[in-house]
Automatic annotation (TrEMBL):
<dbReference type="InterPro" id="IPR036514">
    <property type="entry name" value="SGNH_hydro_sf"/>
</dbReference>
<dbReference type="InterPro" id="IPR013830">
    <property type="entry name" value="SGNH_hydro"/>
</dbReference>
<protein>
    <recommendedName>
        <fullName>SGNH hydrolase-type esterase domain-containing protein</fullName>
    </recommendedName>
</protein>
<feature type="domain" description="SGNH hydrolase-type esterase">
    <location>
        <begin position="18"/>
        <end position="223"/>
    </location>
</feature>
<dbReference type="Pfam" id="PF13472">
    <property type="entry name" value="Lipase_GDSL_2"/>
</dbReference>
<dbReference type="InterPro" id="IPR045136">
    <property type="entry name" value="Iah1-like"/>
</dbReference>
Length: 256
């Protein structure tokens, strides 16, 4: 095949897949003012395709079933990065339909990471811990869902964040620790009672990061973006947006 013909072949961008629940799905919303997906897409423009594969309401039990249905084969596209951001729904208290037991949660995350489709691509994976919740705000959220009992608690959610962090460490996968980043922003320190619990006064800072005690405000998504970019810079500095060349040259260098 001639070089002229080869140059004319379609060459797709490598992909950066965001895999998660409603928090990921909602990260594309321009109504927020700051959207994590949009910000990441802007950072990697002309370098990577950032693709939102967030599924509202999904737990890891759903995720392991849908994953092989959308994750591309190597001959279709190259996945360079993937974030895995589940646990907010798994951490529902037992008796809630979305609840996934802690050991099953860890097993499901491992299934995604070690899935043959993942291994075939060997992407750079970033584990995002589920975020903390604010029980004060969740009262209204649960009421709107006609939930008679609390759906989530601060302490139970922490167990899932700890589990995600632990599993990532066991598998040698970098973690963007969203739980700790939110709690630190709220002024919490290790060993203190959990911010977000109704056993303490409502924390205005934590409340400012969450719209309903679970989902994120623009300030919350800004923290997610910062943590993901910090993780990339720490583990793959050659993959930061400023380090990657544009897929096609700028207009001054482009052939006419």
């Amino acid at each position: 095949m001639s070089s002229v013909t080869e140059e004319g072949l379609y060459q797709p961008y490598d992909q950066f897949i965001l895999f998660g629940d409603s928090i990921t799905e909602g990260s594309s919303s321009q109504e927020l003012g700051f959207a994590f997906h949009a910000a990441l897409q802007d950072a990697y423009r002309r370098r990577l395709d950032v693709i939102n594969r967030g599924f509202s309401g999904y737990s890891t039990a759903h995720a392991i079933k849908v994953f092989p249905k959308f994750f591309p084969r190597p001959e279709t596209a190259t996945v360079r990065f993937m974030t895995i951001f589940f646990g907010a729904n798994d951490a529902c208290l037992q008796g809630n339909v979305q609840h996934v037991p802690l050991e099953d949660y860890k097993r499901n995350l491992r299934t995604i990471i070690e899935h043959p489709a993942t291994k075939a691509q060997n992407p750079k994976i970033i584990m995002l811990t589920p975020p903390p919740v604010n029980e004060y705000q969740l009262k209204d959220f649960d009421a709107s869902k006609e939930q008679p009992h609390p759906s989530r608690t601060a302490s139970h959610t922490k167990e899932y964040a700890d589990a995600a962090r632990q599993l990532a460490s066991e598998l040698g996968i970098p973690t963007a620790d969203i739980w700790t980043a939110f709690m630190t922003a709220a002024g919490w320190q290790q060993g203190q009672p959990l911010t977000g619990s109704t056993e303490l006064p409502n924390n205005d800072k934590l409340a400012s990061l969450l719209t309903d005690g679970l989902h994120f405000t623009p300030a919350g998504y800004q923290i997610v973006y910062d943590e993901v970019m910090k993780t990339i810079r720490a583990h793959w500095p050659e993959q930061t947006p400023e380090s990657l060349p544009m897929i096609y040259p700028g207009w001054t260098e482009a052939p006419k």
